[in-house]
Amino acid sequence: MFAHVREQVDSEAMAPRHHRRHLLLLLLLSGSALSACRGESEQERQQKALLKSVQRLLETRECAGCDLTGAQLEGADLEGARLAGATLESAKLARARLRNADLSGAILGGADARGADLRGARVDGASFGAAQFQGAILEGLDLRKVTELPSANFEGANLRGVNLEGASLTGMGGSYRPSERWHAYSVPAGGAWLVRADFTGAKLRFTVLARSNLEGAIFRDADLRDATLTHSNLKDVELQGARLYDATWEDGHKCTSRAKGSCHPAPR
Question: How far does CA 124 lie from the centroid of its chain?
Fold first, then answer.
């Protein structure tokens, strides 16, 4: 096509100026059409690469560093899968079996992992930004080195025995933001969505849970010593056996150094 158009340009080099403009426009339109075709081919190539990676993962449970963006993996049996450093952004992982999987350094931003079973998984350095973990099982996981926790949704999740000591579930990406008046210089921060989450026996010492929605959450026998719960929604939380020594309560007051099962304000 280009050769034909160039011949026309050469043969009509002395043609009136408006003719030359017409030929130049034809060249530009031809180039745009070719670029569009190339764009479609690239999209097809990426789709084929994704399908190939998914097939490899399902067959071998080995796909470390793979790009699995948007992969359809609902209900997949990925127990023990090696997915270190993999990109699982917007992946469909609902009800997937990920027990003992290696997800260290993996990116799960926007992934749908509702009802997924992650017991025993390695998640050091993983990113959970805006991921959906409603009803998921994360029991016993060490989440201290997971990034972007505030924006994830853990409603109804099994977080029994998790280790979040010194971690923060409050940040600019936090989805729960209590109604407040902000100063012009303030950076709005929200907390994680943890409605009805089960933190039984969880290690939460020095954990920042400020501004989080913890309505109906279970903290039975959890270690909340020195934790921060300022401006959190603590409606109907269960605190039986929870250690709240020196924790900062929702209204900003400190619990006593022997508070257990409920927060008794420390004398000022």
Answer: 14
What tokens appear for 185 in the block?
């210089």
CB 222 within 8 A of CB 238: no
Tokens encoding 111: 């992934």
Q: Where are the domains of the chain?
A: 1-30
* Structure tokens that stand for 216 in this block: 């109906």
pLDDT one-digit tens code per residue, 33-65 = 544 555 568 888 989 999 999 999 999 999 999
Residue 7 burial class via C-beta count within 10 angstroms: exposed 0-12, middle 13-18, buried 19 and up:
exposed
Which residue's entry shows tokens 């210089």?
Answer: 185
Q: What is the DSSP string of 168-229?
A: B-EETT-SB----PPPTT----EE-B-TT-B-TT-B-TT-B-TT-B-TT-B-TT-B-TT-B-
Query: What pTM, to 2 d.p., does this model score?
Result: 0.81
